[in-house]
Amino acid sequence: MAKLYVVGIGPGGKEHMTLKAIEVIQRCPVIVGYRFYISLIEELIPNKEVISTGMKGEIERCRAAIEKVREGTDTCIISTGDAGLYGMAGPILEMAEDIEVEVVPGVSSAFCAAAHVGAPIMHDFCSISLSDLLTPWEVIEKRIIHAAEADFVIALYNPKSKGRTMHIDKAFEIMRKYKKADAPVAVVKHAGRSGTQKTITTLSEVDTGEIDMMTMVIIGNHETYIAGDKMITPRGYEVSRGDSV
Predict the structure, then answer these.
(1) Pair (225, 122) in one structural domain
(2) If 10 and its partner were Cys, which of 22, 98, 107, 109 is the partner (CB 3.0–4.6 Å)?
(3) In order along the chain (245 residues), what is the average pLDDT of each group of 10 residues?
(4) From the CA atom positions of the chain, what is the Rg in Å?
(5) Residue 195 domain boundaries
(6) Final residue of a structural domain among 83, 107, 131
(7) Is the pTM of this model over 0.85?
(8) How far apart are CA 214 and CA 31, in angstroms?
(9) Chain-centre distance of CA 52, in angstroms?
């Protein structure tokens, strides 16, 4: 019986993909995905049937993948990061009630970005997407307020697009009401891909001009600190800075 695999390919580089993700992609005859995501795994999919669409074609891709499985072909639909975080796992499981589905986890962009700058996500954190295409801004704003008020480390996905230039500024404006001005902020562009760029700054000094849709933004909690080129959030272990653990 054919199966549909919903695969998280990580941030984009093969070195950040799981062995299971690579194995499934190589084994499936049909690969479905957003065009840009397909370009990230081209070396893994020679001589395969590839079904791709542009932006906002998520449901179209899901339907195409499900139909291929119904026809009897093992099929893989891909998402960057983890397929269960702003990816295709949700809509596939909602739509595919008559076929077998397996979700293959991947490395989230938040974790990859965090690794580039140290250990900012060592304690409780939350992820918030600033895209209001599927979620009203009023709901997003409420989530930012409560996350900041609760002193979570916050990872922001989809921070700024050409059509949403001010959401990141609004998010920082909200957070400044609840977080200290020198709260560390990491801005990582192209995390896990070629051309990675990273900046560690503070909530009062962050420059939103460099932020785009390829950027992850991580804002620390009240204990997060900057050490050289690293951003660190203590977990609470009894250690002295500079000690070996």
Answers:
(1) yes
(2) 107
(3) 96 89 97 95 94 90 97 97 95 95 96 97 96 95 98 97 90 97 96 92 95 96 96 84 56
(4) 19
(5) 110-232
(6) 107
(7) yes
(8) 23
(9) 20
